[in-house]
Structures are given as C-alpha cells and as structure tokens.
C-alpha cells in the first residue's frame, strides 16, 4: 500500500488540529500520531514576546516534497501537515503534523521524521522578539 499525503499547507491564519486530523482520518487507520508545535515563552534563557515566520515562495512545495518522502519511507497510511507563517504570540500553534498507520510505532516514527525534515529543509524562517527588546533570526539563510 502506498501512503498518501492528504494535506500539506503553509497558511497565514490560525492552524487547526481538527482540519489536519480530518485529512488523515480513514477506516484503515489504527492509530494517529500527532505533533503540535507551540510558541513557547522562553528560548535559550530569553523571554519570548512574539515571533514572525517568513516563507520563501517555494515553502509549500518543499513542505509537500518532504511529506511525500517521509510517507514513502515509513509504513504509514497517510500524512498531513500544516505550518503557520505570519505573526504569532506565546501559545499559538506553529505547526501540526499527523501520520496514520495500522499500528502506532510507524506513525510515531513518521511524525518525528516529518517534523525533523521540515525544520531542516522547508524555507520558513523565524524572527523572534524577546522580552528584553533583543531579537534573533532562526534558520535564515
């Protein structure tokens, strides 16, 4: 059985766990592994006030390619991923990844592989604004 990438989007509005889970729901599924990345209040000892994600025009295509590679490399039924761009504050969802399989182990492995791959390859850059007035770019070329 070939795994399907059911959904891979970069959006500038609030993310939806329900939308991502609905995209991978299927009667064959025995487990859904879900990873939700959230904007936290500190990073390496600095208080985070907010952050902005900026994307290259190819970001969604690269995200889809990453999802397709991960789906092909793992024993999963389906994959879905949604990444946010724009202005986010502490507590906002930054990324949602869902993978499904007949058994949990391969879904856990695929979800971890997808979040690690997209963080390394998808051209989305984070500009963090810290509480002390300093700032930092993460992942920018």
Topology:
Elements (H helix, E strand, L loop, with lengths): L3 E8 L5 H8 L6 E8 L3 E2 L2 E10 L3 H15 L4 E7 L1 E4 L3 E9 L2 H18 L2 E7 L4 E4 L3
Parallel strand pairs: 1-5
Antiparallel strand pairs: 2-7, 3-4, 4-6, 4-8, 5-7, 8-9
Helix pairs in contact: 2-3
What does the model show?
The structure is a single chain. The chain has 141 residues and is of the alpha+beta class. It has one domain (4-138): Aldehyde Oxidoreductase, domain 3, CATH 3.90.1170. It is built from three helices and nine strands. It has helices at residues 17-24, 59-73, 104-121; strands at residues 4-11, 31-38, 42-43, 46-55, 78-84, 86-89, 93-101, 124-130, 135-138. Strands 3, 4, 6, 8 and 9 form a five-stranded antiparallel sheet that branches. The chain has a four-stranded mixed sheet with strand order 1-5-7-2, with helices on both faces. Helix 2 (59-73) runs antiparallel to helix 3 (104-121).
The assigned CATH architecture is: Alpha-Beta Complex
Fraction of residues in helix: 25-40%
The tally of domains stands at 1
> Which residue ranges are poorly predicted, with pLDDT under 50 across at least 5 consecutive positions?
none
CATH topology, which one? Aldehyde Oxidoreductase, domain 3
Order of helices and strands: EHEEEHEEEHEE
Distance between the termini: 38 Å
**Major beta-sheet overview:** 5 strands, antiparallel
Name of the top-level CATH class:
Alpha Beta
Question: What is the count of helical runs?
Answer: 3
Please compute the radius of gyration using only Cα atoms.
Answer: 15 Å
CATH superfamily, by name, is: Molybdopterin biosynthesis MoaE subunit
Strand content: 35-45%
């Amino acid at each position: 059985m070939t795994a399907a990438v059911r959904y891979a989007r970069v959006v500038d509005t609030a993310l939806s766990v329900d939308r991502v889970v609905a995209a991978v729901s299927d009667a064959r599924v025995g487990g859904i592994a879900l990873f939700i990345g959230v904007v936290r209040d500190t990073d390496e000892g600095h208080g985070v006030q907010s952050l902005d994600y900026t994307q290259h025009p190819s970001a969604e295509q690269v995200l889809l390619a990453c999802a397709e590679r991960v789906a092909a490399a793992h024993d999963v039924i389906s994959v879905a991923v949604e990444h946010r761009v724009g202005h986010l504050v502490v507590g906002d969802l930054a990324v949602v990844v869902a993978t499904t399989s007949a058994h949990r182990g391969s879904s856990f492995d695929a979800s971890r592989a997808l979040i690690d791959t997209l963080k390394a390859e998808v051209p989305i850059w984070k500009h963090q604004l810290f509480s002390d007035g300093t700032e930092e770019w993460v992942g920018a070329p």
